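Researcher: Structure for this, please.
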Amino acid sequence: MSGTERESLQEWVGRSETRTDTLDARPVALLSATLDRDDPPPRIGALLPPLWHWLYFLPSYRQSEMGPDGHARRGGFLPPVPLPRRMWAGSRCEWTRPLRIGDVVTRDSRIVSVTPKRGATGELVFVLVRHEYSTADGPALAEEHDIVYRGLRPAEASTNPAAVAAAKATWTRQIVPDDVLLFRYSALTFNAHRIHYDRRYVTEVEGYPGLVVHGPLLATLLADLLRRNGVGETLRRFEFRARKPLFDTAAFDVCGRPADDGTVALWAQGPDGAPAMQATATLA
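Model: Predicted structure, token format:
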């Protein structure tokens, strides 16, 4: 990117938007089925599981407004970063009170920073977006969302498998990420990013070996691991960082280990044992 392009991206800092949505029950039932859960039918007033707020406030850009990767063309709310790959790099969520099915929720979003960097794989641009969710009862959730843009050169993030291997998992669940699972999650979140369902595009254009498992799906599976083991029905804080992509070419594990301070270390690891995502959950 040129210096002029970098300067122009700074004009997006401080940009904001406000949206309102109703947390209706149908998406909850559909995600429960997608995650192969045996939940009772969702009812008004029931707790919304942690991170399932990503089922709402979905993008609604028209087909004619779509870019070549399936995302909306650059330059709306998010800045027009001139790098082709866009990935969800991490988030930090903190709940003031739990969200409930049936709530009418307002989300105030603001671009906090746009930070160009140069790494071992080339140019990168990090965009930090802060979302604040509130209901009629007041503030409920604050979320910081890290987005990274990069070039097309395939790259694996450096990891330290031994650090995770040394921390024995208390819980482990194997996930088989077939293309049906990835399609269903894309449909539920109205995510048209082609790396998750278009095998020809993801291998021939972006150079990945297979369909990419969604970052928020990985995070949701980590939070779901808590629920399956009787903890984490409500959380005070959940933060995660994506370390390397996982693909539908091999099964992977979601793992967790509770600590004495009320937190739980969580991670997803591929067949090589290296962490693809690392997270920390703070219990309510």
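Researcher: Any notable elements?
Model: The first strand starts at residue 16 and ends at 22. DSSP finds six helices and ten strands in the chain.
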